[in-house]
Amino acid sequence: MPEMTLIEAVRQAMDEELARDDRVFVTGEDVGRRGGVFRATLGLFEKYGPGRIIDSPLAELSIVGIGVGAALYGLRPICEIQFADFIHPAFNQIVNEAAKMYYRSNGEWLVPLVIRAPYGGGISGGLYHSQSVEAFFAHVPGLKVVIPSNPRDAKGLLKSAVRDPNPVVFFEPKKGYRLIKGEVPEGEYTVPIGPANVSRPGRDLSVFAYGMMHYYCLKAAGTLAGEGIDVEVVDLRTLYPVDKAAILESVRKTGKALVVYEDNLTMGYGAEVAAILADEAFTSLDAPVKRLAAPDVPAVPFSHPFQEWFMPNPDKIAAAMRELAAY
Amino acid sequence: MDQAEHLTLYQQMVVIRRLEEKSAELYQQGKIGGFLHLYIGQEATGVGAVAARSPHDNVITAYRDHGIAVACGMEPKVILAEMLGKVTGCCKGKGGSMHLADKRLNFWGGHAIVGAHIPLATGLALANKFRGEDSVTLCFFGDGATNIGYFHEGLNLAAVWDLPIVFICENNQYGMGTSIERASAVPEMRQKAEAYGMPSARVDGMELLAVHEAAAAAIAHARAGQGPYFLEALTYRYRGHSMGDPERYRKQEEVRRWQSDDPIGKFEAVLLKRGISPDDLNAIEAQAEATIADAVRFAEESPFPPPEELWRDVYAEPEAEPQPA
Ligand SMILES: Cc1ncc(C[n+]2csc(CCOP(=O)(O)OP(=O)(O)O)c2C)c(N)n1
Ligand SMILES: [Mg+2]
């Protein structure tokens, strides 16, 4: 199997879907000749032309809005928002229009739309180029929210997202774009939206994560293996709809749960995982459910040490794992 | 403007140029992280327009903010310290290059979400009118920003409510890698102001005195209670959108053509023609170099912020805002 970076996998997924289905098109700021700020669409303009790789003006509301309209009319738009931080102008289009359309039309109007956005910190982007915004969208029935953690899943999940008849918000860990490499199957495959993945089976405690934090959790779990602590790592992959069964099954086995995310701690994704466990796995728990997340401050501040204090990392995760294992 | 004022503006442009060349170096050395958007080539726009304000007039801009910060009176050492993420920076390292700000200078900052500061500027102008003050707000933004809804709502409101604000579009002809023809339905940004019934002018943004004169007229219009004014300055950024931009969207000849129209070089020629001696200009040049060298030393020697700063300033305490008596 060929090895590639996460961003190459994203690009390949779009390339294959553009080739497979002529209703698919890509739009966003500088996605054409420039190939996107992170180069996710590099080469696609040359291959598919300006009719299908469409540079948009600086206008996020409309990038998503025209995506919704075109999807209603049967096209399969992939809308790129340059940074997740810039998705907010399009919030209404996503939450009010895309998410509610199928429901309000009694199942007549489909919105097969994909919105891709790089998210997360760790690249010194500062306050407005580092945000993790998944919790806002994972709160909205009608949307699917996906965050891949590795190239294989990124490609397979993005292809599923393009084929999905529903709006999918697809957040990509920008710090991992080139850092995270992995094998990707040759030939056609998809990864279904929905199921979580036990990426490392273990007995002593369960750790739930997605995206960049999942990558760090695997590293931390490797460190703990050397200390005789056997960590199970679960890659949530699809945040919404949530794979409750996978979460419950893991904790019924290990009795302990840690959720790791780089969004602000309070009201973040970990709260939902903790609630599911309190509700349906209470008698299996041998320890309080723990969350390791970013502090409740308004944004990731710029200065390098600030960013270090803000972000969970393999060392902090390993410490949280040890503490929970010792409980 | 008298000769002393001319020299001050020349000095500001030179300081900005040297500051940014130095910051590019520090970026390449890995001392500045993240994103760095240079203003080189656009100095006459910010310097010329800000020079026309009174100190109590508000200035607000986007993320390409180093030049306007200097024009507003921010010291280079405070700017460089912020770029390096040091506690002595204007935001104690929380903001970095894109978020320079100092309320004491009535400089309401750089803003990284494109266009989002335009309605804020309209709000500043509303507050001035509400309080019966004669302040004017100068709101800078790029050509790309005129394509987002924030811009249109901000302009319309300013016109409907006759607010004292001057919108200054620094048209450098590209929004990142997208040229205006590919992003804007009209070739001149001021045509968008016409849609809101707003008077406008288009000036050569490479000509310091032309920008200054046009801005002075626009500010006078707004201060006289005649409502908003739109000024478009045609300019060019010599460097990429930010550091590391491969610049595949434009030809090097185009960049060179604009470089030969350099705002600093042109103003230098004006000054020489008006009898300033080359020695005076060289002295300013040398002084700017020294200022920047000091600023670099200050920024590099300054400490990083302490951990507790991460948690500070999330919420204001009730006493932070005085209540009416
Ligand atoms: C809402 C939003 N969308 C996209 C971006 C990414 N972005 C930053 S600057 C820029 C181009 C802006 O161009 P312009 O307004 O002409 O300013 P210039 O960079 O030329 O000074 C883009 C697309 C952003 N920061 N905010
Ligand atoms: Mg521009």
Q: Largest beta sheet of chain A: what is the strand line-up?
A: 3-2-4-5-7-6-12
The major β-sheet of chain B equals:
5 strands, parallel
> What strand order characterises the main sheet of chain B?
1-2-3-7-6
CATH architecture call of chain B:
3-Layer(aba) Sandwich
Overall morphology of chain B? globular
Taking all residues together, what is the mean pLDDT of chain B?
97
What is the CATH top level name of the largest domain in chain A? Alpha Beta
Which fold does the CATH topology of chain B refer to?
Answer: Rossmann fold
- The number of distinct structural domains of chain A comes to 2
Would you mind describing this structure in some detail?
The complex is a heterodimer of chains A (327) and B (325). With 327 residues, chain A is an alpha/beta fold. Chain A folds into two domains: 3-183, Rossmann fold, CATH 3.40.50; 197-326, Rossmann fold. Chain A contains 13 helices and 14 strands. Chain A has helices at residues 6-20, 44-48, 60-72, 91-98, 101-104, 134-137, 151-163, 176-179, 211-225, 244-254, 269-280, 304-310, 314-326, and strands at 3-5, 24-28, 53-55, 76-80, 114-119, 144-146, 168-173, 181-183, 197-200, 205-209, 231-235, 238-240, 257-264, 290-294. With 325 residues, chain B is of the alpha/beta class. Chain B contains twelve helices and seven strands. In chain B, the strands form two sheets. A five-stranded parallel β-sheet of chain B has the order 1-2-3-7-6, with helices on both faces. In chain B, β6, α9 and β7 form a beta-alpha-beta unit. The chains are: A alpha/beta (327), B alpha/beta (325). Chains A and B meet through α3 and α12 of A and loops of B. The complex binds thiamine diphosphate and magnesium ion (MG).
